[in-house]
Design goal:
2 copies of one chain form a homodimer. By secondary structure, chain A is α/β, with parallel strands linked by helices. Chain A has 2 domains: about 1-270, Carbon-nitrogen hydrolase (Nitrilase/N-carbamoyl-D-aminoacid amidohydrolase); about 280-475, Rossmann fold, CATH 3.40.50.620. Chain A has 17 helices and 19 strands. In chain A, the strands form 4 sheets. Chain A has a 6-stranded mixed β-sheet with strand order 5-4-3-2-1-14. A 6-stranded mixed β-sheet of chain A has the order 6-7-8-9-12-13. In chain A, helix 4 links the parallel strand 8 and strand 9 (about 215-220). Chain A starts with a strand and ends in a 26-residue tail after the last helix.
Chain lengths: ~550, ~550
Amino acid sequence: MKIALAQLNYHIGDFTGNLARITHAVAEAGKQGANLVVFSELSICGYPPLDLLERKEFIDACVSHVEMLAEAIDPEMGVLVGGPEPNPGSVGKMLYNSVFFLHGGRIGQVFRKSLLPTYDIFDEYRYFEPNREFEILEFMGRRLAVTICEDLWDEQPFENEYARSRLYTCNPLEELIRLRPHAVINLAASPFSHKKMEAKQSIFTGKAKRYGLPVLYCNQVGAQTELLFEGGSMAVNPSGSVVASLPFFREDSIMVDLDALIRSKPAPDAGKIPERIEAIAGALICGIRDYFGKLGFKTATLGLSGGIDSAVTLALAAEALGPDNLHVLLLPSQYSSDHSVDDSVEMALGLGVKYDILPIEPLFMQFRETLKPLFKNLPEDNAEENIQARIRGALLMALSNKFGNILLNTSNKSETAVGYGTLYGDMSGGLSVLGDVYKTDVYLLARYLNSEKKVIPENIITKPPSAELRPDQKDTDSLPPYEELDKILEAYIEKQLPREKLVALGFEPELANRIITLVNQNEYKRYQTPPILRISSKAFGVGRRLPLVAKY
Amino acid sequence: MKIALAQLNYHIGDFTGNLARITHAVAEAGKQGANLVVFSELSICGYPPLDLLERKEFIDACVSHVEMLAEAIDPEMGVLVGGPEPNPGSVGKMLYNSVFFLHGGRIGQVFRKSLLPTYDIFDEYRYFEPNREFEILEFMGRRLAVTICEDLWDEQPFENEYARSRLYTCNPLEELIRLRPHAVINLAASPFSHKKMEAKQSIFTGKAKRYGLPVLYCNQVGAQTELLFEGGSMAVNPSGSVVASLPFFREDSIMVDLDALIRSKPAPDAGKIPERIEAIAGALICGIRDYFGKLGFKTATLGLSGGIDSAVTLALAAEALGPDNLHVLLLPSQYSSDHSVDDSVEMALGLGVKYDILPIEPLFMQFRETLKPLFKNLPEDNAEENIQARIRGALLMALSNKFGNILLNTSNKSETAVGYGTLYGDMSGGLSVLGDVYKTDVYLLARYLNSEKKVIPENIITKPPSAELRPDQKDTDSLPPYEELDKILEAYIEKQLPREKLVALGFEPELANRIITLVNQNEYKRYQTPPILRISSKAFGVGRRLPLVAKY
């Protein structure tokens, strides 16, 4: 039996588009002799549909489009497609997260997801009832164990040391193994994390090896707002070697002969995991491209400050959208150094990106004039710094409003963590590109992006980071060096280590306390940030939910 | 046996404060002869602790403070207190949502929550394993069925017509009834909704009547960021009549003699549900007060436009924080009508609130000057309107930054729904007071707030609503009258009716389509709004999660 894995980029709620995409992939696979075509989790509507699952018309459309698909495809072929299924029972959640087997012009067996991830960015128990009954798909004389994403993740590789690995009291694969399958198929919508690339692969190789069965894994690809799905679908042989795999962040498909897979040897390049920074760059470029593409926008703007964050954001955006679709603003103040403007101009010219220089000093003067009756002769403080950032935000948004560009936010994860940014100022934008990238990784990204062709001027990479909101300001005036800061942040945010453990790891207690306090005190700012492209296992945004008024 | 219900306002994570509050309430109840004191769900840490539950040091503190409480109280008395309990099993979620029975200086029986709400604002399955084993608390010769909040909500009164009422496959009260209890106790953290006041009461009266048992319900009171808990704890007799009840939005306690309760008649005023607008006003005042109190802030600022939204926000804030703690700005432009300033001054003077008038025209001129190289001679459009709103936002935030005030956002639910507002402009603020109040209810609130003493000038209530961002602008230039708009919005957002059903209800198809499109297209704006005090069953914010890039 020949099985095709079709790794596609779905648009949530675009039923016509998704149906066309799936039908086309089935036809193509059919031409190459496929008997069975496997798509990804909730492929008919795209993952994650979130609260659209609570709307009757949305579920009706899911159901009818699966039916249309069953009728549209070659009746000789089999197709496994994901979609929400109304729960026929009278109690429990309204829906199952299901996979439909289509064959002979109709919907055949239905397989339901047992393990419903409800942590971090996942909210599946919000919508779905867990499955507790197991059956096998028999097709062309082969017995296939059909599983859905988390069903294979009965043990979690959490980064939080305190989290437990076994979140579920049921193990669906153990149940299915009792039914003596010849292979395991997994339809997934598994988001990217640069820290989980090996762990994810080992889920599939580990299961294959443990049960001596081939595993066929088909993941969604592409970005859904902040969530990035890398694809990376693969076929694993019964000895746990990856025999064939699909690329990261690109639609593609492969064909696997099941009998050959059972006897196969590992292919040299299959399942090769990309280098970390390369993977992050690919993820962010995909995130920008899909955010614009799926919203129907083409052009972006951003403020180019002469610093590393806006430079890296620009380089990524140029790759994702093309330099012709970018229009950047240089917004110098009296505190900006000359090289900030020069370096930015050099970069924009090098990339061929349209730019304008709008000095903000006259506006800053006018703000001070307008506020004089209130501020009188009070000393300057962060109020004046924030005014400059908000002038820049307002000018960028004016450009965005006038010409229909989306403003890209350029804040990195380190400064977002400690609240080193101005709400409605530099924290503005439709999408945060680097909000899940620590500053030390922003530097590595810069080097990576420069490796083929120099797009970011060397001076931008080597000069000491500064917000340039007062004379001779440096980031290190108020923060430790980023090498140190990022380690503390990662230990506190990703690993969720308690204060005492940070100190035990060698961080200076006063510094650790100060950083923890800054992180906790700035939840209110992050509540209002744009969606942040998620590349780690714990990004700011929907996957991290903290009370704003906690005394903690 | 005498049972006290202690309805307290907890501060999430303030273990020392919460412990002191609970210990004090036990001592007071003891003086009045109570044998058992009942607190609310997760009382030791405050509800909802959200992802603090994933932190080891937070759980350790919960556990140790329950132990400290057991030792601190009179060993003769019994106490039921809520807190997270580490799951002693090796699989399943890390925690149970539990109630601890404290007696004799130690922790006795532990009762675990069975039904874990995971919908709307609730994410309990994110953290907790559901209970499936049931036992009774035997104390002083009485058998008590201890339940936790949702455990009694096996049937849901959802406003979404499509939602099903029976979300759970288990019915904990049915299980407990088999163990022949004398009374049902419910420790809750049940948030306010002005639409569910009757439905909530009927949960308890219905259960009491159905099983012929008294029901004692103790709810949390006070605000936790956007979530408002009204309290309204009550004792219900076996015939389903409310015999005693606690006020809305105020800490208080009552003592109930269990034997008397079993034989009691309804008390005339007990369980009286406040009038809807009065309840909303109380909820919003509590929400403002606790947001400031729990964050340690005293003073607020807001922009007083001469319109109804900012006037009602100001009146509520004056009630919550005191007029002395407010400093408002009047920010007229060349498009502002004279009466806008006059009405605002009249209101500020009447309340005794400090105000300043800062005309924004010079700043608006300077923005146009600065942008001239880009905008050239393009016609004015919403870009220029938004600049005015962002100038106001920046001036208000400057005041906030300079003097340590929190900016109150004044947007209402109707305009937030259709995206009639400027990101980083009038959508700025630390807290949105009216973001869950439809415009038609804002008017009713104004009338209510004026009923005792006129605080809002009549002219503000009667003039046609306008954003005053261009000459002679009226809201009805681009929107239907609010009476009609609000009905469509409520049907689409709260009831989640599909497009066809709206038309079947008599709304003009083109209008319904336009409003639905506006709501869907503006998810990206709402992603960045401040937390919104939640008074309905479906507020914008954490309880409503929609994909930004959906094609829908």
